[in-house]
Specification:
The complex is a heterodimer of chains A (about 425) and B (about 350).
Chain A (H helix, E strand, L loop, with lengths): L7 H20 L2 H38 L18 H16 L9 H9 L1 H4 L7 H9 L6 H33 L6 H32 L17 H7 L2 H12 L9 H19 L3 H16 L10 H19 L3 H11 L15 H15 L4 H7 L2 H18 L13
Helix pairs in contact in A: 1-2, 1-3, 1-4, 2-3, 4-6, 7-8, 7-15, 7-17, 8-13, 8-14, 10-11, 11-12, 12-13, 13-14
Chain B lengths: L1 H23 L1 H8 L1 H9 L5 E5 L1 H4 L11 H8 L5 E5 L5 H10 L8 E6 L6 H4 L4 H6 L9 H10 L7 H14 L13 H9 L12 H14 L8 H16 L2 E6 L4 H7 L2 H19 L4 E4 L21 H18 L4
Parallel strand pairs in B: 1-2, 1-3, 3-4, 4-5
Helix pairs in contact in B: 2-3, 5-16, 6-13, 11-12, 14-15
The chains are: A mainly alpha (about 425), B alpha/beta (about 350).
Amino acid sequence: MQFVPAYIFILFFIILLDFTTAHIIWRSTGLTKRLWLIISLSSNILLLAVFKYAAFLLNNIFAFFQMVHFTNASAPAIDFILPIGLSFHTFQSMSYTMDVYRGQQKPETHLGYFANYVLFFPQMVAGPIERYKRLGVSLKAPQALSFESWRAALWLIGFGLCIKMVIADNLAPVVNQIYELEQPNIIQAWTAVLFFSVQIYADFFGYSTIAIGSAKLLGIEIMDNFKSPYRAASITEFWSRWHISLSTWFKEYVYIPLGGNKNRYGPWVISILAVFALSGFWHGASWTFIVWGLLHGIARITEGRQKPPRTIFFKRVIIFLIVSLFWIFFRAPDFKTAWVMCKACFGFTDNTIFTNYNLGLWFWFFLLWLIEWFLNDQRFDIRMLQVSVWKRWCVILAMVYCILAFGGTQALPFIYFQF
Amino acid sequence: MRHVKTIAIFFAALILMEVLYRITSFTSDLKKFSPEQYRLLHISDSADILFFGESSNTTFAPYDSIPYSIAELAAQQMPAWRWKSITKHASHAGIYKQWLNALNPKSVPACIVITVNLRSCNADWRYSALEPALQQALVMGKARPRLLNRFLLALGFYPHLSERLAQKAKLTEWDTTCLPVSKNYPYKTVRAWDDAFANGYYCKPDGSWDMDKIQLACHYIKSYAFALHAENSRIKDLDAIVQWAQIKKCTLVFNIMAENLNYAETLVGPELTRLMRFNRDFIVKRYSTKGVLVIDHLESVKGADYIDQNWTTEHYNQNGRIAIAKKLSQVLLKNLLNP
């Protein structure tokens, strides 16, 4: 993942393609309409396939050929650099074309507005993946900037910075260190698993909050991407709270077209597994991501189609632990590492040497829960308006002090930048 | 008016935060992120001679029976003087310059010995991948509000090039800088010189390339094929150190470290050793006239006394360290007034 100036033409291509095909789709009917949708979607997917999945696909095809003794040749080396944010802006652009196809969205007549929708800088690199019906309207509406909206924007940016720099960046070095061990012990494994759960949440939630705040500075509202996901009492609820823009994207454009909840049990199971496997594959061109997605899919299937029972604390803890264990496949660079970590979590390890990690780091782990308790399922800027002025000042000053005095010192990019 | 009041409260709070940080976390952060500067804050009161060095000072051969660094060996020769040394691997004049600023201004030692490593002036070291870490370790000691330093440390706000840019700058320098070699010598740039040696300059009796020898020769070329000039960033740093010493009125010593000229000559030829001597002479001439005691050890250590026989380093066994320490202490005893 890297910013390569020439790759800006990929974005221009996506913009021109989807802008044009949306107009054609709008004016066409029947098979022609469907054909143009397929052209638009397949072009977007082809771009993703070339830049993100080509090496993975070729390696697997050649591995399969070798397995059936069809050839002994190995896959040609492909070293395309993944354009930064490609997975996000192709999905954003595809949602527009599909909305136009469904008649839910009129095609935009002004190329500039559409280009701004795809290129809107606060969320271009790592989401949230917006829909045109929200962001497009917001971009066109006259922006009334006020002190209140600026203040809220600065609160959000500060809050996002705080959880990224202070929580995610302080936990990341320990997680990285443990994942590099050949044989972690049970304490190390659980430390890494729990810390990574908090790290990835603080990292991505931090980024999304900064994006929302940055857009708000310009007077533009973009959707929330998180809603206290670790308070979920079921996997179903977790996915309605985690990376909301992506999970709703898959729900609207993949799950429902596949039949959704109306399916009989068999096709429903298949559609759930397909959606979660695709979701995993969207994150990265690796089998570990697919397994991560499938694990969530299986867990989701076991919950059935009924709404989960009333939330109880114990259930939340169980779901947090399950999700944390699933993250192993997301974080591990390969199956070997993931397997070692899984085994270590359940005590199957020869390493019994206790390593004394700085216990102070657990403070950052628990700080996230303190923040969750403070947020009480609300967005930070909204919550801040609900508390007294004194409390608000205390929160702001504590946040500023944490950013200034306790930021992690390793240069760590946002995790979701790699997708 | 309400907003002015809010901003004023915020700034007052920032000042209080700075005070709180100094009281609670600054010392531990300085110790953690800039241990050398932390030591400097505390040792300058108790030192007459302060020695700044890199790995050459504290690297020992496994077979050494005398486990003392160059600074310790020199100190043993001058018992009347209180010696302190700060050593950090891969450091150079640019780092020492910053360390000097971290000294307690009220108690500057009488004499400061700066290790001058010729290789540290080459493009490979100046654009080294180790540089960001060295620069990072200096942030906490900068003369700015402490809390701001801590914040800038977290933001990665210190001078450093990305790996790609550093590599590009290094290769450009190797490609384009003309070396002052003899007129008839065919290789005028590091790139041309390196290419010539890399393409089978040394062969084994069976006709295959002697890769070990080729690699070492190429490494010598990249390490020493350069000519110092006033615009070299290390020379600028040494100039700044001289200026600092003149203001503080302390004796400054530049201790030019020994390099393996025997191997350089055998492997690459006399053109390379001529460049090495040219660089040594440049430093001696430039700084002797500025009141600096320049001690030249360039050819003081025999080839066999280098610990790394298959690489270019300034790591000496005990014979090498003793030779350097002896010469250093002799010059200091001759030139320094009694403590």
